Inverse folding.
């Protein structure tokens, strides 16, 4: 059984580190655009995606190691249509509370904290040192950047991006595909497909649906 990382950039290297910290062996990086194609990164070979996808063993596992939410979503759906199975990568230093549910494909980085009865969707990134408090719901393909603090009973829709160091007050809902800039303090709920930032965070533009 192989374990493949789709994406060999900076985020991919961190995912490799997490998996190795778990004592798991990564078979290869898969990437059509890496300068390292045909070479290796930290001893792990880098192969063109087409080569691997045409020959991958049915028992293999995958992590889409791409930081951009939209790209990660597109690639995960592409792999899913080919019958690929996804696995989680959870750093040993992460603190996972009682009743937490984490869907396949998600990456939980070093020193992250996820407290009781929170639900984390598919292909989510909970980045280094981020805190997700109790009874939250984090939708598929979200990215919670390093140092974010998400208080209890918060709901994030799918493909939400929380910039580094953002803080969300209790009970807030953030709609699908909304992006909150670095250092944002979110004190009221935000609709889908908007960009907001500041302290307190304000909507600066809406994105096409």
């Amino acid at each position: 059984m192989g374990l493949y990382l789709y994406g060999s950039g900076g985020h991919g290297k961190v995912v490799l580190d997490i998996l190795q910290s778990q004592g798991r062996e990564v078979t290869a990086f898969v990437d059509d655009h890496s300068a390292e194609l045909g070479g290796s990164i930290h001893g792990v070979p880098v192969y063109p995606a087409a080569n691997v996808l045409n020959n991958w063993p049915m028992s293999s596992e995958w992590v889409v190691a791409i930081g951009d939410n939209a790209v990660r979503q597109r690639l995960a759906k592409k792999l899913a249509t080919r019958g690929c199975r996804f696995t989680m990568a959870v750093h040993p230093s992460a603190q996972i509370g009682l009743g937490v549910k984490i869907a396949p494909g998600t990456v939980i980085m070093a020193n992250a904290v996820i407290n009781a009865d929170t639900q984390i969707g598919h292909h989510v990134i909970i980045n280094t040192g981020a805190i997700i408090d109790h009874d939250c719901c984090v939708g598929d393909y979200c990215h919670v950047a390093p140092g974010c603090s998400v208080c209890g009973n918060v709901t994030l829709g799918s493909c939400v991006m929380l910039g580094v160091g953002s803080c969300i007050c209790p009970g807030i809902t953030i709609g699908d595909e909304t992006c909150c800039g670095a250092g944002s303090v979110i004190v009221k709920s935000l609709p889908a497909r908007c960009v907001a930032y500041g302290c307190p965070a304000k909507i600066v533009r809406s994105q096409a649906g």
